[in-house]
Amino acid sequence: MVQYTGIGTPKPNMNEDTEMFWHKLRETKKLHFQQCCKCGTVLHPPRPVCYNCHSFELEWVEAPTKGKIYSYVVYHRSVHPGFQTPYEVVLVELENGARIVGNMLDAAPDEIAIGMPVEVVVDDQVYEDVSLIKFKKI
Question: Chain-wide mean pLDDT for the chain?
C-alpha cells in the first residue's frame, strides 16, 4: 500500500495522446481504454494509431474493473522523497487482457502475490486535478 510523506509526488506524465485517458478517468471515475474500430484491438497506453492494423479509427470504451496481478515490484528505496518505503507497484491484467500499472490501496507489500484478484479503484485524494488508478483486493 503506497503511502505519502507529504512532500508531494510527481504527477503522471500527460501528453496529447494520453490527455483524454486522464480526463475520462477524472470525469467518469471509471477506467476507459481506446479500442480500434476496424479490428477491435484494445490499446493501452493511448496512442494515435492501432498497433495491430494501423487504423486511425479509435474509440473510447469502458474497461473492465476486475483483473489479476500479473507482476509486481516492491521498492525499499524510494525513487522520490514523496513516497514512504516500502511500497509496491503492480502490473494488473484486466479481464479484457489489457495490462495497467498502479498501486495497491489495501495490501501491504508482503500480502501481494502474482495471480491475486484485484479491482480498480479511482483515487482522487492525491491531487486536486488528476485521479490515479489504484487496486484493492477482492
Answer: 93
Question: Predicted confidence band at 6 (pLDDT cuts at 50, 70, 90)?
Answer: confident
Of the candidates 95, 91, 96, which has an alpha carbon nearest to the alpha carbon of residue 135? 91
DSSP string for the chain: --EE-SS--PPPP--TTTHHHHHHHHHHSS-EEEEETTT--EESS--SS-TTT----EEEEEPPSEEEEEEEEEESS-SSTTEESSEEEEEEEETTS-EEEEEESS--GGG--TT-EEEEEEE-SS-SS--EEEEEE-
Closest by Cα among 122, 116, 111, 105 to 138: 116
pLDDT tens digits, one per residue of 46-83: 999 999 999 999 999 999 999 999 999 999 998 888 88
Question: How far apart (Å, rounded) are the C-alpha atoms in residues 12 and 16?
Answer: 13
Read off the pLDDT of residues 15-33 as tens digits, 9 standing for 90 and up: 999 999 999 999 999 999 9
